[in-house]
Amino acid sequence: MILERLPNLLIAGAAHLTGVLSSGPGVALILVCGFLISFLGHWAWAVALSLAPFRALYARARAGVEGALGVFFAFAAFKLATSRS
């Protein structure tokens, strides 16, 4: 499917034009391709995470996920508070 290969096609196109053109359209194409890749990636995550199966999975695992994140951030805060630099 073309949508699965779209990021690779955009990157390859930008890389090709960058080698051919050192400024102007090559740089603009890299910026546009970067925006498209970022936008499509974030859109895909937003859609995937809003689907009913994922919401049900998160509802079952919520306590564990939040507990693990709490431990991680408490450890990070401790390390920041006790670092010497």
Q: What report would you give on this structure?
A:
It is a single chain. The protein has helices spanning 2-20, 25-49, 52-82. α1 (2-20) packs antiparallel against α2. Helix content is 88%, strand content 0%. The mean pLDDT is 83. The protein contains 3 helices and no strands. It has 85 residues and is mainly α. It is flat.
Short account of what is shown:
By secondary structure, this protein is mainly α. Helices cover 88% and strands 0% of the residues.
Layout of helices and strands:
Elements: H1 2-20, H2 25-49, H3 52-82
Helix pairs in contact: 1-2
Radius of gyration: 21 Å
Order of helices and strands: HHH
Unreliable parts? none
Intertermini distance: 51 Å
Tally of separate helices: 3
Dominant shape: flat
Strand content: under 5%
Key phrases:
single chain; 0% strand; 85 residues
